[in-house]
UniProtKB/TrEMBL annotation:
InterPro entries hit by this protein: Anoct_dimer, Anoctamin, Anoctamin_TM
CC terms in the record's Gene Ontology section: plasma membrane
Keywords recorded for this protein, A-Z: Cell membrane, Glycoprotein, Membrane, Transmembrane, Transmembrane helix
Protein name, entry field: Anoctamin
Membrane association type: Multi-pass membrane protein
Molecular function per GO: intracellularly calcium-gated chloride channel activity; protein dimerization activity
Subcellular location(s) of the protein: Cell membrane; Membrane
Recorded family membership: Belongs to the anoctamin family.
Domain named Anoctamin dimerisation: residues: 1-51
Superkingdom to which the source organism belongs: Eukaryota
This protein's encoding gene: ANO1
Region (Disordered): 640-665
Organism from which the protein derives: Rhinopithecus roxellana (Golden snub-nosed monkey)
Ranges of Basic and acidic residues composition bias in the record: 640-649
Amino acid sequence: GITSLLANGVYAAAYPLHDGDYEGENVEFNDRKLLYEEWACYGVFYKYQPIDLVRKYFGEKIGLYFAWLGVYTQMLIPASIVGIIVFLYGCATVDENIPSMEMCDQRQNITMCPLCDKTCSYWKMSSACATARASHLFDNPATVFFSVFMALWGKQGLSGKNIGDDPRFIAEYEARVLEKSLKKESKNKETDKVKLTWRDRFPAYLTNLVSIIFMIAVTFAIVLGVIIYRISMAAALAMNSSPSVRSNIRVTVTATAVIINLVVIILLDEVYGCIARWLTKIEVPKTEKSFEERLIFKAFLLKFVNSYTPIFYVAFFKGRFVGRPGDYVYIFRSFRMEECAPGGCLMELCIQLSIIMLGKQLIQNNLFEIGIPKMKKLIRYLKLKRQSPPDHEECVKRKQRYEVDYNLEPFAGLTPEYMEMIIQFGFVTLFVASFPLAPLFALLNNIIEIRLDAKKFVTELRRPVAVRAKDIGIWYNILRGIGKLAVIINAFVISFTSDFIPRLVYLYMYSKNGTMHGFVNHTLSSFNVSDFQNGTAPNDPLDLGYEVQICRYKDYREPPWSENKYDISKDFWAVLAARLAFVIVFQNLVMFMSDFVDWVIPDIPKDISQQIHKEKVLMVELFMREEQDKQQLLETWMEKERQKEEPPCNHHNPKACPDSLSGPAPSHAYHGGVL
């Protein structure tokens, strides 16, 4: 078929033609022009998409993508509203937050231990006032409610069916089978049906496994390199003579490190996408569906690791394995592990998530989608103009439709379109406890994304081959997996990354007056500066203007005057037990509420269910009517055949007339009736 001819280079391309031009003065009205005017323009962003026309023009598979994208964007509206309310609640209560007020109170005179060896000196906790106040905007009691809401939001509206198989064969598969059959025929002269076995594919499978492990290792190595950069940059800035620079070390290091992460993520996303496609091609899948599913699995695995590894590090690893003053943990015996700010790592997680999410949406999803097709189109135009005769404009006017469409970009599948939305869905659900405004920015992006994708399909791409589909296919399973993972991750973010649980424990177990006064002092341990290891004490111990005997650090440990100095205290185990209990309660609560919502709210609304039932009844009635018509037609035909077989009834042959017989009818009359 055409796939073999494409694989052998007989044809350069095969594609359906567009209906006609979409803009111009004398352009005839067509579906493409209608889609361009009513769907692919940014000015109609407030209108519903003409999904039926999209389905008619591009097929069910692409129509389902845009239908899903529209529903997903609509679902972001309530999530955005709740996120804005949570953020505004944090803004309204920031001046009433006692822990941040204590951290900003210079009268507390809390001296903190150095953030790095030698070059860093002691510092005042009040210098982290801005970070503490900003943390309350996202780390407040409303965040827990929002996390439960988003966990339920992410688990609703999904339907679990698989996509219909796309029976079209891959061109490379046809070529490989043809090559194998020719070799077999030349050797054994056998003409049996040939197919590729696991032995034919084993080298490709081995290459896939090694390549994926190597690329994941590269991602981890880059994250480790950024961690070392953060540690080194913090130490270098600590030696700066400017007080303003030293007071903003955390913000400077975090912002620059996140920008580096963003650039690396965008570059590796493009590289990993190309590598995933190449790895899938060398496997030589048989059908389009098999090719697409294997490509999606590889691309999603690599891009998931690439996009979320830096965020996972800040959320769950930073500040967990630092040790304590006098006994710190080092990387390569020279780089001391990073610590979280006194207010926790949640604010840094918010910065990390917001910059990566907004950067990916702005640069990768929008600028790349607009800029790269425009550049390719310009290059093709200049190349064509250079190769064409002087009367190039007249030549263009005389071009046939297939020649005009050939200059458009080939359709590369929906995998990139779905992938960027799935990664965005992960940003919106997985770490939403640290950034309640994530749904709002996703909503604004998707309003543009729908029209951007529509314009690309109508104006920049060759018309795709229409493919049948019942739903969004394997992407549903990925969405469902992310929705379940979001429940677990948000539970751990609230319990381990934020200070929500330590505040509750202090309020109900240690507070003397039932308020949060004294919470900051409760979370800090004491360290005697005489216990520093050799070569790790600050070079300038008098940087604050006085001699420091005891410095503070965030941890639950015994004081230096205790018998078991610097050991883990009982408070640590109480907080840990509460954190683990919260994870269990949060997950079970969300699961129960999700099942309850599923029971209360059916997947299909009642009016639609009744309409579907009515359509089924009408279909059955139509089917029965057609069967009755067929039966009547068959009986009429059989009657005519019987009459043809019977001899004419006249006076020359009276025996042929049934009325003249007193006995049973002749046997051939019954045979005619049976036949």
